[in-house]
Amino acid sequence: MTEGIVFKGFPLGEADMIMTIFTRERGFVRAFAKSPRKTKSRFGSALEPFSYIRISLWGKENAELPRLIQADIVHPFQKLREELDCFLRVSELLEMTFMLIPEHVRQEGLFDILLDTLRMQEAGCGNQKAILCYKIKMLNAAGFMPRLSGCARCAGTGRRFYFREGSILCDNCGDPLSGFELSQGAIKLFETLRLWDWSKLHRVVPTTSLAQELGRLLDLHIRYRLEKGLKTRDFMDKIRTDPDTYPA
Ligand SMILES: [Zn+2]
Question: How far apart are the CA of 149 and the centre of ligand 1, in A?
């Protein structure tokens, strides 16, 4: 038995699914689920996206495709599926986590942080600070933490971030005409969120503009690290730039 958060399902044949679940003990796993799409399925609604469930898998520890034999809802997170904006925001978080964290790698700390983040989103969808904090802790777990504490080459001070380096470079080491310029406030906010323990982050109250500035940097950094856009993000951009296609 382990706990997991449903990321997505891929239909197989008439009624079966291959589920991708972020589990507390095994990290991301893919599992075969027999007939969850049938109306009288024993899985009920447990395999809906974002459901927090307790599962039993049958198969060896690192089996390519273990079989999902039981899934019980601990908390449905139904509210996160009810609004399109909220659904997309949470899908994006899970998708970037899935793409940056290798499968079958235990991520207990990150699992608890994700669970907390989902709870905060449910309490008030669009909680920007929670999303920002999650992205920073997730990048840390994935080993892709950007460096804003000083120049990567000479440790001097600077405020221009270079995506190729994943770091700030000072004006002597970098090209002062390029790079992503950050305000001192955004750098300070990042350092606080990076260094502080998750349990203390509720004490940090950033201004909206600093949170947005830092959020933009993190999204570009993540995008660069993935070397391709996240599907959800592209979809969100499409909605924003072409609202007629997806009317409210
Ligand atoms: Zn330097």
Answer: 12
